[in-house]
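ESCALATION

Customer reports they have been waiting on this structure for their group meeting. Please prioritize. Original submission:
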Amino acid sequence: MSPETSEPSAAPRRRVVAVMLDGLRRDFISPDATPALAALRARATWFDAHRTVFPSVTRVVSSSFATGCLPARHGLAGNTVALIEDGELGLHDVGKPEFVDTKRRLTGTVLARPTLAERLAEHGGAVIFNNVSPGAAYMHDPDGHGHVFHRAGSFGPGRRPIQGDEALRATPDAAGDRIATERFIAEVVRGRRPAFGLLWLCEPDTSQHAVPLGSAAHRAALATADAHAAMVIAAVDAARAEGEDILLLVGSDHGHQTVRAVIDIDAELIEAGLKAAPGSTDVVVAPNGTAALVYVDPAAEDRLPAIETFLAGQPWIGRLFTGATLAEAGLPAGGGLAFAIALAASDELNDEGVPGLSYAAKPADGKADRLGCGQHGGLGTFEQLPTLMLDGGGFAAGQVVSAQTSVVDIAPTFLRFLGLPAGGVDGRPLQEL
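Update from on-call: job pushed to the front of the queue and completed.
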């Protein structure tokens, strides 16, 4: 084992271990479908009104998880965003590994608020194992204050590459989740013992995007995610039996709804005479699953009233945020962002009897439309139904918290447990509830 993963001479007195099961709706947890998670729910504090941010997409939620702030303050507005380069708007996929460098080059910063990795750099450190997109992984520590392990590239302090056998070799599927889980347990829970260890797994999200919610394949993905969570829970219990004080979080970043129809917002605007042509930079649509961001070049600002009128009249619009109301949605101002769309959603059942249907924006870059499968990004009931359980650290066993909580509350909760200040965040420590 290299110095990057060897046990330090003295472990922190307290530490946090967090497991995020990407895309896990909390109503999917049951003794039959997810026995380990159901057992943890019985002994942990369960947050019954927990919500995520908007857009409810992983790269944005990762940024809010890491900073304790809404997008309006940390500055990342979507999984897909437009940035200004050489005076023109250009569409960017935040999930690509190079986005961190692109964002810093074009705007001067990646995230505008400190992450947990930065806050803990001199207080026991942070180690992150992540098996979702590279961009989502790197948002937890874009400036290299701790350690991030990801298949697209692993980094230590100063963004120094970790190579060879110490790099994470994992596929973005259940098998890769197993590899990441085993290494996380060996190197973080049992080995380094940092103040904050985070394991972010791609299931059940990856499967939910590809199969109908409620199908046999979906149930198998839930069982796999449950098994990986069970492994970490057992390792934490063993560490506690040796006298360690560990706050354990098991949760998710968002839920899913079933896609009922796909809307090509670009084509709709072109047909209405409000965008020049496919690929034009006068009006740029950034699709974000069941949400979308619409950017307008300053030279086309005279179209803003007409675009707003057009969008407000479409049956596939659930909520439309414009101008000053972008702040109401927690979104950053500037950079050409003119409108944010939560596409229309309902609580109707899909063909498998699972509630929650939504319209989705047509993906960019030729990505496939997935009718009848899971998607997220908007404000539908079930995509805004992430999981949150806190076990230990003073949280009462079997307690149910019905007050509304948010992903931005997680960072200040960890900092409170670790005895550190949490100034400049939008959330509040959940110990206060």
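Sent to customer with the following note: Residues 1-9 have pLDDT under 50 and may be disordered.
Escalation resolved.
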